[in-house]
Amino acid sequence: MIPFNYLGWAFKLFGKGIYPDWVFEALYRLVKNLNEDDIFLDIGAGTGVLTEYVYTKNYKPTYIAVDPAYGMIKHVKNPVIKIVAKAENLPFASDIFSVITLGETLHHIQDLNKGFKEIYRVLKKGGYLFIFDFDPTEKKGKLIYNFEKLFGEPVNFFRPEELAQFLNQFNFKSEYVKYGYRYILIARKLS
To answer: What is the pLDDT of residues 118-146, one digit of tens each?
Structure first.
């Protein structure tokens, strides 16, 4: 396993450079109209790059960052609420989040079925799931897949169309945009 608990300082220093501008722009479109009653959840938040970005654009909602590695999440800036937890066991009531993000997190989830059942449970009807990840069929995506596999990560990589199909079983309607070896998938909870 990659020792994320000891790499928080490096991800805080270089993390923002991992995300291209088009990821921030797409996420901003989802959060710009959230208000005081909305709650935003970043699963696998790491050092909080996505959460901190959207907070600077819209401070009204409550922001929560979840990561299983305390060594990562301790670097998330306030006023974001920081919780050590995994996607498979979210410590929240049902139907409370308006937007949930998985930024380069999907391929680290150990039990995808359990993780997505939990995500579905805590997301409000009509809420959005925002996923940014790598396509393992593209050259750079294959390199990342092989690197993470070498380090014992779960390597749950999907092509975007496969992920959209997978999410259908959880009653999500999905759209995706692919840029080279990376993609954004936005899924809406239907019921």
So the answer is: 999 999 999 999 999 999 999 999 999 99
Nearest CA to 90 out of 71, 74, 72, 109 is that of: 109
CA 154 vs CA 2, 20, 96: distances in Å: 11, 24, 28
Contacts 24+ apart (CB under 8 A), 134-141: 134/104, 134/107, 134/181, 134/182, 134/183, 135/159, 135/160, 135/178, 135/181, 135/182, 135/183, 138/180, 138/181, 139/181, 140/180, 140/181, 141/181, 141/182
- Give domain status of residue 24, yes or no: no
Q: Is the Cβ–Cβ distance between 125 and 95 less than 8 Å?
A: yes
Q: The CATH number of the domain where 82 resides is what? A: 3.40.50.150
Predicted structure pTM score = 0.95
In a domain, 21, yes or no: no
Number of domains the chain is built from = 1
**Tell me: the pLDDT tens digits for 133-180?**
999 999 999 999 999 999 889 989 999 999 999 999 999 999 999 999
**124 burial type by CB count under 10 A (0-12 exposed, 13-18 middle, 19+ buried):** middle
The range of the structural domain enclosing residue 77 comes to: 4-14+30-134+149-179
